[in-house]
Specification:
Elements lengths: L13 H18 L1 E5 H20 L2 H10 L3 H14 L8 E8 L6 E7 L8 H45 L1
Antiparallel strand pairs: 1-3, 2-3
Keywords: Ribonucleoprotein, Ribosomal protein
Protein name: Large ribosomal subunit protein bL17
Family: Belongs to the bacterial ribosomal protein bL17 family.
C-alpha cells in the first residue's frame, strides 16, 4: 500500500491531490504534452509511467486498474491502443520534463511534461539509414531545381529580346 505524502500536498487534502494527479495524467495522455508547475510535473511523472506500464500489459485486469485513475473511457482506450504500443520496446522513461521558466502572474516555476516521441538509442542504425535515404533524393531535386530556374530565366531573356526587337521594328 502506498504511503501517504508527508507535509504539504498539492491540493490541500490527500483526496484532492489524488484527483489533481489523475486529471493531470488524463490530460497528458489526451494531448501528449501539458504545461504545469514543476512540482506537479514531478509528481505526475511516476503515476503516468506506471499507468503506461500497466497499459503495455494490455489485459483486462490492468485496464480496470488504469480505469480507477483515468476516469475518461476514451482516454483509457487511447492509452491502451495508441500510446502503449508506441512504447512497446521501451523499458521505461516514457515522459520528459522540460523547464520553461516562471509563470507571469505569480512567478511559479513552470515546466512542460510530454510523452517521448523518438525511438530508443538502441536502434540508431535503422534510424540513421532512413534519413540518409531521404536526403539523397532531396539533394537530387535541389540540383534539378536551379537548372529549371536557369531555363526559366533563359526563356524570360529570350522573351525580352523578342519584345525589344518588336519595339525596334
Amino acid at each position: 500500500m502506498p504511503k501517504p505524502t508527508k507535509g504539504p500536498r498539492l491540493g490541500g487534502s490527500a483526496a484532492h491531490q489524488k484527483l489533481i494527479l489523475a486529471n493531470l495524467a488524463t490530460s497528458l495522455f489526451e494531448h501528449g504534452r501539458i504545461t504545469t508547475t514543476e512540482a506537479k510535473a514531478r509528481r505526475v511523472r511516476p503515476l503516468a509511467e506506471k499507468l503506461i506500464t500497466k497499459a503495455k500489459k494490455g489485459d483486462l485486469h490492468n485496464r480496470r486498474l488504469v480505469a480507477r485513475t483515468i476516469r475518461d473511457k476514451g482516454v483509457v482506450h487511447e492509452l491502451f491502443t495508441e500510446i502503449a504500443p508506441r512504447f512497446e520496446n521501451r523499458p521505461g522513461g516514457y515522459t520528459r520534463i522540460t523547464k520553461i521558466g516562471p509563470r507571469k502572474g505569480d512567478n511559479a516555476p513552470m515546466a512542460v511534461i510530454e510523452l517521448v516521441q523518438e525511438q530508443l538509442s538502441g536502434a540508431p542504425a535503422a534510424a540513421q539509414a532512413a534519413p540518409a535515404a531521404q536526403e539523397a533524393p532531396a539533394a537530387a531535386e535541389e540540383t534539378e531545381a536551379p537548372a529549371t530556374a536557369e531555363d526559366a530565366g533563359a526563356e524570360e531573356a529570350e522573351a525580352t529580346e523578342a519584345k525589344a526587337e518588336g519595339d525596334e521594328k
